[in-house]
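User: structure tokens for this one?
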Amino acid sequence: MRSIKNLCERLAGARWFELSIVGIIIVNCFLIGVETYGHHAGVQLVQTVILACFTFEITVRFIASRGVKAFFLSGWNNFDLFLVLISYIPESLFTDASTVMVLRVLRVFRVLRLLRTSDEIKLT
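Assistant:
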């Protein structure tokens, strides 16, 4: 089990991993915009893969953390976990268009993660 933790620590600390997530965030935000104009099966498939990537990333960071308490003391971890969890809520559960729009807007907030990776603005 220690080797998995070591692997997750190295992965979570790797610049290429962080930059990959940034790229995925940008694609995700673009596709959320595309979805406002209608349902596209291909876009939905890509969004599902992106959600799997975000789930993998938050899991890696959880395993790499110095414990449960340390993980949840990070505002960024709480923010990211919240966004991942709401992404699992199917929009089809809601008939009200404004509720669906709120879910999409919340998902777009993921772009704020770009602040975390900025060399000029370090909030953590």
